[in-house]
Amino acid sequence: MTQKRFITLDSKYNSGVDIYDNLLQKVVIEINTGNKQINRKIAKAALRIIEGRL
After folding, report:
1. What would the pLDDT profile of 12-28 be if each residue is shown by its tens digit?
2. Which of 19, 38, 43, 44 lies in disulfide reach of 29, CB 3.0 to 4.6 Å?
3. pTM of the model
4. Is residue 23 in a domain?
């Protein structure tokens, strides 16, 4: 069974989205534009870049 290295986490306290690295066990990218929909789109693009799928 393989586990994804990067996962996105929605913040419960603000409209931000975090990208968490399971290998390093810490948040590597924090996105908070004030708009939840835009945050998710940016997170999706950032994941594609850091995973090398661009």
Report:
1. 888 899 999 999 999 99
2. 19
3. 0.82
4. yes
